[in-house]
Specification:
HD/PDEase_dom, binds fe (ii) ion, alpha/beta, HD_GYP_dom, Rossmann fold, 5-stranded parallel β-sheet, HD domain-containing protein, phosphoric diester hydrolase activity, 53% helix
């Protein structure tokens, strides 16, 4: 979400909270943003009675508004003139009055409640992609999900390479929404894994994308099962185990064509000895890319807090991977260690 404004500071209200949470990026209208976010929601908080501000906003929107971007105007002083100015500038929606604006922004805030309470290093491309991927209602819309997951994953890779995996882990571990947290953690560890192995940019993006999208099918599993604090019964386990095939099918249906990524989504719960699911594939029929995503997935699940378990340390999670050589490729596990743990 982008905010174009002519205000010096946003000091109060829900807008400030959105900015503090890193949900919304604020840009003075005279300074062009350095990022472009496809389909981003754009908020405009500009004094439309001021002609100079209105014309600068027009220029900013002309450059940075994607064809599908909704543009919402916050009209603090709503009158016939400001309303027609906003319409002329292409408003998709108008919010007016402090109360009305704050109420609408609170709804946006609730939607983004997975985010932490201070500035996030998670890039907006990634936030938008994860929101779209894990929100089942948005899947009805026709969308380019290959582009969406690629953009989200590339931004993860860039952030991990710039800031380091430990910074990334620390950041995403504070998320409230555990499924979002998990997808970002698997994507981040996958990015670090590919980087430490000296993969080409293309292969790093592929691995990160697979990690980013691997659990998308969980968006279609009831939250009361995913967040259940006690042991799952047999029917619930069977329900959760549908998520790899659901993810595979829905991504394919929505334009994801990369067979390597689709294979990881479908097979990330397969294990070397054939005891995994959904197909019970064994090690020799599993590509390395799938085995790598599985390692990142299991490691991440162990170090995360869940409703039903406490987190373990990175060392303990690594020990679990080495203790279970019947399930995980040990050469890859050793390589993974070098990307995550200090030597
Ligand atoms: Fe999974
Ligand atoms: Fe997972």
């Amino acid at each position: 979400m982008l905010l174009f404004t002519d205000r010096e500071l946003v000091q109060e209200g829900e807008l400030k909270r959105l900015i503090m949470r890193g949900v919304c990026r604020m840009f003075p209208i005279h300074a062009a943003p350095t990022i472009k976010v496809k389909n981003a929601l754009i908020l405009c908080d500009v004094d439309l009675e001021n002609l100079a501000s209105a014309s600068m906003l027009r220029l900013a929107l002309a450059v940075h508004r994607a064809p599908d971007s909704p543009v919402v105007f916050l009209l603090r002083d709503r009158n016939h003139h400001t309303e027609s100015q906003a319409r002329a500038l292409g408003a998709s929606d108008l919010l007016s009055g402090e109360e009305g604006i704050n109420a609408a922004l609170r709804q946006l805030m609730a939607k983004f409640s997975f985010l932490k309470t201070h500035q996030s290093c998670v890039p907006p491309e990634t936030q938008l992609a994860i929101e779209d991927l894990l929100e089942p209602n948005t899947w009805n819309a026709a969308g380019n999900y290959q582009g969406l997951i690629d953009a989200g994953a590339q931004a993860v890779l860039d952030a991990v390479e710039a800031e380091g995996i430990h910074h990334w882990m620390e950041e995403v571990m504070s998320y409230d929404n555990l499924t979002y947290q998990h997808c970002l953690l698997v994507a981040g560890t996958a990015a670090a894994f590919g980087s430490s192995l000296g993969f080409s940019r293309e292969d790093k993006v592929l691995l990160t994308t697979a990690g980013f999208a691997h659990d998308v099918g969980k968006a279609f599993i009831p939250l009361e099962i995913l967040n259940k604090e006690t042991a799952l019964d047999a029917a619930e386990i069977a329900n959760v185990r549908r998520h790899p095939m659901i993810g595979y099918a829905i991504l394919k249906e929505h334009g994801v064509q990369n067979t390597d990524v689709l294979g990881c989504v479908r097979s990330h719960h397969e294990l070397l000895d054939g005891s995994g699911y959904p197909a019970g594939l064994t090690g020799n029929s599993l590509p390395d890319l799938v085995k790598m995503v599985t390692i990142c997935d299991v490691f991440s699940a162990l170090v995360e807090r869940r409703t039903y378990k406490q987190p373990v340390t990175s060392e303990a999670a690594y020990d679990y991977l080495t203790d279970n050589e019947q399930w995980f490729d040990q050469a890859l596990v050793r390589a993974f260690r070098r990307s995550i743990l200090p030597t």
